[in-house]
What we know:
Elements: E1 8-11, H1 21-36, E2 40-45, H2 57-67, E3 77-78, H3 83-95, E4 99-102, E5 129-132, E6 138-143, E7 147-152, E8 160-163, H4 171-181, E9 186-190, H5 197-206, E10 213-217, E11 219-221, H6 242-252, H7 263-273, E12 284-286
Parallel strand pairs: 1-2, 2-3, 9-10, 11-12
Antiparallel strand pairs: 4-5, 5-8, 6-7
Helix pairs in contact: 1-6, 1-7, 3-4, 4-5, 6-7
Amino acid sequence: xxxxxxxxxxxxxxxxxxxxxxxxxxxxxxxxxxxxxxxxxxxxxxxxxxxxxxxxxxxxxxxxxxxxxxxxxxxxxxxxxxxxxxxxxxxxxxxxxxxxxxxxxxxxxxxxxxxxxxxxxxxxxxxxxxxxxxxxxxxxxxxxxxxxxxxxxxxxxxxxxxxxxxxxxxxxxxxxxxxxxxxxxxxxxxxxxxxxxxxxxxxxxxxxxxxxxxxxxxxxxxxxxxxxxxxxxxxxxxxxxxxxxxxxxxxxxxxxxxxxxxxxxxxxxxxxxxxxxxxxxxxxxxx
Length: 287
């Protein structure tokens, strides 16, 4: 159970474009959960993939959040400024025998990675990815929104990349390293990231750190049944109607709406009303 006196939550957007309504739901849910527990809420910019980053998107996102009165309790950190921490984590994992080099192209297998390079020696002259060698056969998590979930190695997840062949640190490694550094106690995010939980849990175990609680909110689906995303050109949230946006997000999460045009007043009341048992136990929900 989370110690509410030391609760730390976070919202971690990638600067690949402005926030859309699905992003706002995730930000609001994480904010309300932290505030209702008397905890801290942090913002972290996950800018580890330069080819996908959009210039100025980080500033735009922070302005959008601020316009909705969603402001970090600590200075915003950028993953691109913390590469040494990820290298340290890789060294620790490697020293413990958890990593192996892999140069298998993605097109060489279907579905989960079959562990081809687990027992092979990879030439040091070839650029190679680093994979995490999973030792657990099952991972179980009682998610606070989605309920009990079990993942089976070889069926639901496999050995995964922690450093890409191009030298960039992979998402799974970076997010766990930063959550440990920031002492995050509960992760509130969209249900599209539920499948990342077993891999991240493996990393927590390997680094001898207790994994945080999780609360996965329903994905916001468009009328076509697809998740709203930057890749599908979801509409940017309009800060001019911030109060309406917040109430729409509250309604999406089955929380009471607040009759006010002031985002700060809405958030203050929503914190008092916040109940996780009202959150729809769905992977996705249509607007």
